[in-house]
Fold each of these.
Amino acid sequence: MTARPLIGITSYLDEAAWGVWRQSAAVLPQTYLDAVSRAGATAVLLPPQPGGVERLIGALDGLLLAGGADIDPARYGADPHPRTGRPRPQRDSWELALLAAALDRDLPVLGVCRGLQLLNVALGGDLVQHLPDESHQTLPAGYVRQEVAIRPDSVLGGILGPTAKVSCYHHQAVGRTGSGLRATARSADGTVEALELPGRSFTVAVQWHPETDPDDPRLFEAFTAASRKEAAR
């Protein structure tokens, strides 16, 4: 039997409540774990912590950059917009270090929402800090279903085809594209909805939340297939 690839998933470090407790915790929506498991991989959570990046990346077959809080605008040389969330320097530093090590090794990488933005910032790009209200996010928490147009000559196009209906929840977006990155999907208003780093084993990031759509596992299956090849090397 082929071994299940090991996928590291970045996680939140936030206040959470369970039982009689309310304290800081490493948390992640179950939908990420379910999506990875359904695709045939084993998930390992990677909460922000000091050190251990190189050893972790050396043990993993793929890295999934999960969604979450806004990236500190100082990371891309901007002042904060009034609607930008408070900085999470520990998470930013941790995930940027994981991503740098993964790219250096050419480990398969899948970015989701914040993960796409992190990839763009890591490679020298910047972000639009606030989009028009309710264009890609509704409040309270609710996904905006919209169609994106995908470049047919991209990795993503080979997985999903020329268009896809996706679930979005983001108030920020790609501004200047990072070095070497290619925008491979856009929404009707021109917002970048996917990025890829060509010439890699698998470096794909989407602005939407594919983990919330169990009826369409294609992206996670493709990521897992790339990670399985990494495990076999």
Amino acid sequence: MGIEVGGLLGLIILVLDVYAIIKIVGSGASTLAKVIWVVLILALPVLGFLIWLVAGPSRPATV
């Protein structure tokens, strides 16, 4: 049963990270800030997501 729980947890983390990356790309932050956030989330999936959730760019891009 441990494999199923671990797989489900991994899937949840993947979905949350993809959500965060989509929100980062659509934000109004500078390109450098976007790259730094995406690299942080890819390098540290759980911790990077939590940091982004608290301190990440949250305003939408203006057209």
